[in-house]
């Protein structure tokens, strides 16, 4: 079900009368269920006629008794109950926004018709067409079938009763003349039509099963003479199933205001289904049916499944996605400043490094935060976080610490290195990303040479390598082809800042790759001297080599990593002013 065509009943109901005020024929297509309803509603062609751009679509939907019954596997003999018809009608209304004209068959007796009018009007239907035959009617198109016409006065009374129960001005009751179907003359139809108009019919449908439109055209001509005489301009409707060589322009010129293509979606679906079934039987496989079947994805698109997928992704992004901060390692470079404290407990501008990180996360409504501790675990403190210990932190890298929280990663997660600080908007941006694996990378190195003696995680983007510094402009796909601290800084395009997001799928890929690496490999691996030293960036490189797509989110500055004493000064300076 697509939600795109949602409309209130009263707004839809009034649309048919509005369309009839235009100086054009109203083009109506049959639908018999939700899917055919969406097709009738959304079908559109665009092109040019004599260099003038044209676009065409159907104006309204015909809910046919023939195709509703047939789609339920029944003949069109009023054997399908009105409740069942109403179910199909509502199914179509739920997924379309165009006005609907309902085929009311005979309408039953006058009492039944009152209920029919009430229910259709309330549902948002714009018009009902009832035929002047005796209940239970037979479909009009088959020759040799007994067609019994109703007494014109009895039928007129039914129209009058129906008109008297409708509440709005929008709803139309259209009288369908079956004289020609029952083998009667145009004179009979003309005699009856005057009675029906007097009874309050809002329009008239003349039906024929002849290939030759002569009788229909004669009726149209005489109808207009009569309505002119009695100064009553009521809509004339035709259903050119058999006399189908006439164009809409020709029908319009003859005075028809509504043309109904009454059964074509069901007939075409029926033909395609029969051919498909036979093709599978003949070939004992379905490959040969591909050219005559819509791709599954097209159906997904039509019924709104792809919209659901997009929304699910957005929801996943906006949910309180788990944050994992691997903070287990000891930092020998800053040991004199840290004085035996874990690095996350370093005070910067009055708060710990970890508190600054939690602050940024909370500002983005992220409160599901897990910190992996190791070195001086008992000293780690921060409000609103969960601590999980990696007792074996000395034997591994930040990746092994991260993997301690594997159970929290299953629905997707964000990893943050414990020694980085970044502006709030960077987190907001990564939250809106759709990709399964996305790493935040800085492009500053495209403008300045990297600092000497600084360990950096270099990145090379897939599309553009860096020919000369300062001259490049980046565009196109944001895919990483290489990552690692031992890459040549001259060929690097970006630096990984230590912030990455994984969707459920991305997380599954990460965990599977990690488990495979630690189980099946020994010794040197990617940039690591030993599999036990495997870093996050090594695993990412391994995943890229295995064919997984790793995307990047490019930023320019707005972040800091605390590696050296000067970084602490810089952080103090910025955060004191923040
Ligand atoms: C229908 O579509 O059900 C109609 C038109 O009533 S016809 O089948 O031509 O009678
Ligand atoms: Mg019918």
Describe this structure as you would to a colleague.
- It is a single chain.
- This protein folds into three domains: 2-44 and 54-262, TIM Barrel; 265-293, no CATH class; 294-576, Alpha-Beta Complex (Spore Coat Polysaccharide Biosynthesis Protein SpsA, Chain A), CATH 3.90.550.
- It contains 20 helices and 23 strands.
- Strands 11, 14, 15, 16, 18, 19, 20, 21 and 22 form a nine-stranded mixed beta sheet that branches.
- It has 578 residues and is an alpha/beta fold.
- β7 (172-177), α8 and β8 form a beta-alpha-beta unit.
- α6 runs parallel beside α7, α7 packs parallel to α8 and α8 runs parallel beside α9.
- The structure holds sulfopyruvate (SPV) and magnesium ion.
- Magnesium ion binds next to α4.
Summarize the helices and strands and which ones pair or pack.
Blueprint: H1 9-13, H2 15-20, E1 26-31, H3 34-42, E2 44-49, E3 52-57, E4 60-63, H4 65-71, H5 82-93, E5 100-103, H6 110-123, E6 127-131, H7 152-165, E7 172-177, H8 186-198, E8 203-206, H9 214-229, E9 235-238, H10 248-253, E10 258-261, H11 264-283, H12 296-302, H13 305-318, E11 323-326, H14 335-338, E12 347-348, E13 351-352, H15 353-363, E14 369-373, E15 385-389, H16 398-404, E16 413-416, E17 420-422, H17 424-432, E18 437-442, E19 458-461, E20 480-484, E21 494-502, H18 504-520, H19 536-545, E22 551-555, E23 559-561, H20 565-576
Parallel strand pairs: 1-4, 1-10, 4-5, 5-6, 6-7, 7-8, 8-9, 9-10, 11-14, 11-16, 14-15, 18-22
Antiparallel strand pairs: 2-3, 12-13, 16-21, 17-23, 18-21, 19-20, 19-21
The structure holds sulfopyruvate and magnesium ion (MG).
């Amino acid at each position: 079900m697509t939600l795109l065509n949602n409309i209130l009943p009263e707004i839809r109901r009034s649309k048919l009368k509005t369309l009839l005020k235009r100086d054009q024929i109203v083009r109506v297509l049959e639908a018999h269920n939700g899917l055919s309803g969406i097709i009738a509603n959304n079908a559109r062609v665009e092109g040019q006629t004599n260099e003038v751009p044209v676009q065409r679509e159907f104006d309204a939907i015909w809910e046919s008794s023939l195709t509703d019954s047939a789609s339920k596997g029944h003949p069109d003999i009023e054997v399908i109950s009105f409740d069942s018809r109403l179910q199909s009608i509502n199914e179509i209304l739920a997924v379309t926004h165009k006005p609907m004209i309902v085929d009311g068959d005979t309408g039953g007796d006058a009492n039944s018709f009152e209920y029919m009018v009430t229910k259709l009007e309330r549902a948002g239907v714009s018009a009902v067409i009832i035929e002047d035959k005796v209940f239970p009617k037979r479909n009009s198109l088959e020759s040799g079938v007994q067609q019994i016409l109703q007494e014109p006065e009895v039928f007129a009374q039914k129209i009058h009763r129906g008109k008297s129960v409708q509440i709005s001005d929008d709803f139309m009751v259209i009288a369908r003349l079956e004289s020609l179907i029952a083998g009667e003359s145009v004179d009979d139809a003309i005699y009856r039509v005057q009675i029906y108009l007097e009874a309050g019919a809002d329009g008239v449908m003349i039906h024929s099963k002849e290939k030759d439109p002569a009788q229909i055209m004669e009726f149209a001509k005489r109808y207009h003479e009569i309505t002119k005489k009695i100064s009553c301009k009521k809509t004339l409707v035709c259903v050119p199933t058999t006399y189908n060589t006439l164009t809409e322009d020709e029908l319009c010129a003859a005075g028809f205001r509504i043309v109904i293509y009454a059964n074509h979606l069901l007939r075409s679906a029926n033909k395609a289904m029969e051919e498909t079934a036979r093709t599978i039987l003949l070939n004992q496989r379905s490959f040969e049916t591909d050219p005559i079947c819509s791709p599954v994805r097209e159906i997904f698109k039509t019924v709104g499944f792809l919209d659901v997928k997009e929304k699910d992704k957005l929801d996943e992004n906006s949910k309180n996605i788990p944050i994992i901060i691997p903070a287990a390692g000891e930092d020998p470079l800053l040991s004199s400043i840290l004085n035996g404290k874990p690095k996350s407990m370093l005070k910067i501008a009055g708060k710990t490094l970890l508190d600054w990180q939690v602050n940024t996360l909370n500002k983005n409504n992220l409160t599901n935060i897990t910190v992996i501790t190791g070195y001086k675990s008992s000293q780690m403190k921060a409000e609103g976080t969960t601590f999980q210990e990696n007792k074996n932190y000395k034997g591994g890298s930040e990746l092994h610490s991260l993997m301690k929280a594997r159970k929290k990663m299953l629905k997707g997660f964000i990893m943050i290195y414990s020694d980085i600080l970044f502006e709030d908007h960077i987190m907001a941006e990564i939250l809106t990303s759709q990709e399964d694996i996305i790493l935040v990378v800085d492009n500053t190195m495209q403008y300045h040479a990297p600092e000497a003696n600084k360990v950096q995680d270099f990145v090379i983007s897939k599309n553009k390598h860096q020919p000369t510094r300062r001259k490049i402009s980046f565009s196109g796909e944001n895919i990483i082809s290489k990552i690692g601290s031992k890459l040549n800084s001259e060929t690097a395009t970006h630096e990984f800042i230590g912030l990455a997001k994984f969707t459920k799928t991305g997380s599954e890929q990460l965990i599977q790759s990690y488990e495979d690496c630690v189980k099946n490999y020994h010794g040197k691996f990617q940039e690591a001297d030993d599999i036990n030293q495997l870093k996050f960036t090594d695993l990412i490189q391994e995943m890229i080599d295995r064919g997984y797509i790793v995307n990047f989110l490019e930023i320019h500055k707005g972040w800091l990593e605390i590696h050296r004493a000067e970084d602490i000064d810089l952080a103090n300076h910025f955060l004191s002013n923040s």
